[in-house]
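Regression test attached.
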Amino acid sequence: MSSHKLITLAEAVRRYTRDGIQYASGAALPVGSDAVVFGRELLRQGRRDLHAIFHCNTQQLNLLAGAGAVAKAECGFSGLEVFGFANGLRRAVETGQTALEDYSNLAMALRLLGGALNWPFVPATVNIGSDIQHRSAFAPDDYPAKAKIPTVTDPFSGREIGAFSPLKPEVAAIHVSLADPLGNAIMLGTEWSRFELSRAAEKVVLIADAIVDTACMRQYPNLVRIPDVVVEAVVYHPFAAWPQSSPGFYDADEAHMKFMNKSLSTVEGTADYVRDHVTGIADVDAYLDNIGRDKVAELSDTATAFLLDPFRQWIKTPGEVAELLAASTEEAAA
Amino acid sequence: MNAPQTATQLEQQPYTRQEMMAIATGRELHDGELAIFGVGLSMLAGYFAQAHHAPRLRSMTEGGVYGATPVGGLPWGIECNRISANATSFTNAIDALGFLVASGRCDVGIIGAAQVDKFGNVNTTGIWDGDIGATYRLPKTRLTGAGGANDIACGAGRVVIMVTHEPKRFADKVSYISSPGYLDGGNAREQYGFVGGGPSAIVTTLGILRPDPVSKEFILDAYYAFSSVEEIRSATGWDLKVSPNVRVVPEPTPEELAALRRVDETGALRKA
């Protein structure tokens, strides 16, 4: 029996997603960590009508919404920070193609916590009193909205507060820096809401920039915030967050961040972007070729590289990961 | 792009309106406080304060990045590698925005605004033609949403709003409240029991507005050496009242400007 959970990106999307699924990505940060490459594969496999749960917008949500694959989205921050508005998502919202339900960044994290704990609701001391509470894109005629963040009474003080609905996404693709073949993961940089998401989602797929031996996890068990018991599958994918950054591994590709966002501002630009940077990219080698090998080297020369030093001795080479993958494919075929 | 400049050339370059706004915002922060900065200009204002007059200012980003100072220029985001290269702690959103802000522990936050109204309510969600009405209509222009600013506006002890001073940004009433100021004014905020006190100042490219202690309406407190009461009133979308004690904000000192420009090493505040 196979003791590891390594599968390819294409297999992960085939196995764990379908049209209309409630799909969450982590860390869902606009410039930093996110499983952006998972969204590219969702498009390659033609998934549509997604209900996207993103703590914040990312280039992944921007791309998926811009390409018309997102029917509903729930988000905290929905821009690209200093890179500006997210043109693909913005266009999808302005045309009504995507219904975007607004929350704040704390609210999204608390809703995932509520899902993880199986709470009926989460007390809301933020978002109340603002139009985040009063207006609902999912129920446009419900004004002031009663169902989105309903008012409840604190049984202790008698004070009126709000109630957040918990989130339990059907599947989460969580970007991590390091995973072992069993599904234990270490995140470098802010973990944002990945800890809560990994417990809230029904199924978790890790998308790891590098695969390490389990001995690494035994050396730093306190840093393993996502243990294998909550993980279904592990996908090895270098530059999984590109053009966003991954602390320790690579910086944000500033030129591509801008190019991609500009492309997504129109239907034609989005089609061109999908043709040039999504369609037909069959494996990791083709993906890195598409980024450009010189660019890969340049982005890898990051001021955060030292963060990876304690872990380097356990990182498996692409060849070693390929051998593990091949072994599991043979087992499946047998 | 600006041509590379020598240190002397940079010193002699006059300060811009955006630099004045950043310095005036930074002056609102005090040594020893726990502060949370948003992304972009507010981050520069915060790190300027730390570099100039508040060395023991304890700062964090909403991602839970602690003890860091930016490297290589203005970070692209609160989680950017430029702010992750020398941190002493990485935690998470519930920690930063929850344990340290929603709890009431954070003294001050700096947030930006696409639109702000006379009670300090902030809109960063969208632009509509007129009132949205009783049905949620699609925005003409979708903006970035509330992000962590709503949480900071509800939880931080006080909030400084940084915004470019233009009539379209200063509305009598914002079309969508993304982050609450004093809502309808007076004691309207109190019914929600927010642990945070609300906005203490709106610092703009033309001057500084502060709330009336009773009505909570923002009035003109100060203007800059290069602006005037008349210019500010005409750039404000409501009938802006002027404090009887209205004053001129002191110009940046050479030390302040040097500190800001060390933080803003890519010159984000010196671009047109």
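Expected vs. actual: identical. The longest helix of chain A spans residues 318-333.
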